[in-house]
């Protein structure tokens, strides 16, 4: 067992590194597969939504909750489950997450009306939220410090692949065998995952005895997250002030105030807000937010550009976008390997700069008078390069910023910030597109001319690139904050150490 001296307060204490697990690569496969399933189901339904709407003979305003409910519940519960893992243990909670996700997927496929489908999507989002909240924490415990960078980089790769593969697989499965099978396909995968997890996912865990759980703070946090996601979703549909937007804004402000007041006063808060005094933790999460905001702005606009400006078919769009996860899949583990060897985050900042460059390149290609596929694919490849360079070291810095007993909180915070970045990126791109098209005299994407749409999308990509330039500086702040001395004690009073069987 490795030991590293760490300064805490006025004392130097020795923190033992967890032992190397001989089955750690099997555990890695289990965790990455579970993450891929969750990310895939965030996106796979989008392409199938018109078919589902027609199948149940409902309005789009109703059927869109099949997508929205999953994303809202997934995000709203992340921090709750991250905190709960300190009591239940990460392994037991992971089992529960996979089981809930698998059973609810089966129920989604057998839904007989739209309201059943929405309900089971809520349950499915809950299962995915459990997995997302603790996946990084499990890998941090299983892998030694010298291997964590490239290991955590693989999570970024899986998220990127799942985000792009979702619409492609959704369209293929729906067209070939029916929309129900986009849910049924999760069932055998989930069963296999549970079988492998029961055999190989056995970790020694330090569990807290539940003492004075902060139920008020938990409820306020859920309301805060749900209302904020609803506001972003309404903004994505246009700039009109709706009744749902007003109600959501009021609920958001009240619940946020209650949450902050409760967390500062409670002995065992859901999330100790003092953790954000750790500058490395705060700036690394802020960098994640910026990176995923730009990523979503890219992903949401490029399909419109390729289909409506260049006249591509949906499958051609998917084939072109595969350049992004392909390059990311190669670069992210390599970036993590470099981080493991050098413990340097400068190439994380460089990755953000490369991402900004790729967005500027893509914006330039978008407004060329004639299509240039080669230059576009190069810009996609550069985008994947930047994503891969950034993700691994930044995720490692987030997980190393807090003590091991706070790994569940660190993992769930990272997942929450990642989801928020995606939601903000979609809303921001939608708002900018609406405003830019309106200023050019067009009321919608469909009615606009290809030339005007190309210019509008180009401007959005330039703005996304400028956002990433800000991210270069927040990423540099992570490096400059690494020597900060912290004093974070375990939140619980009573702990038990056990090996999960």
Give the secondary structure arrangement, pairings included.
Blueprint: E1 3-8, E2 11-16, H1 24-56, H2 60-63, H3 65-76, H4 78-88, H5 90-109, H6 114-142, H7 145-176, H8 181-184, H9 186-200, E3 204-208, H10 215-236, H11 243-265, H12 279-309, H13 314-321, H14 323-342, H15 346-366, H16 373-401, H17 407-439, H18 450-480, E4 495-499
Antiparallel strand pairs: 1-2, 3-4
Helix pairs in contact: 1-3, 1-6, 1-7, 1-9, 3-6, 3-10, 4-5, 4-6, 4-17, 5-6, 5-9, 6-17, 7-13, 7-14, 7-16, 10-11, 10-17, 12-16, 12-17, 12-18, 14-16, 15-16, 15-18, 16-17, 17-18
Description:
The chain has 501 residues and is mainly alpha-helical. It folds into two domains: 3-213 and 268-499, MFS general substrate transporter like domains (Growth Hormone, Chain: A), CATH 1.20.1250.20; 214-267, no CATH class. Helix content is 75%, strand content 4%. The protein has helices at residues 24-56, 60-63, 65-76, 78-88, 90-109, 114-142, 145-176, 181-184, 186-200, 215-236, 243-265, 279-309, 314-321, 323-342, 346-366, 373-401, 407-439, 450-480; strands at residues 3-8, 11-16, 204-208, 495-499. It has a two-stranded antiparallel ribbon with strand order 1-2. Strands 3-4 form a two-stranded antiparallel sheet. A hairpin with a 2-residue loop joins strand 1 and strand 2 (11-16). Helix 14 (323-342) packs parallel to helix 16. The radius of gyration is 22 Å and the shape is globular.
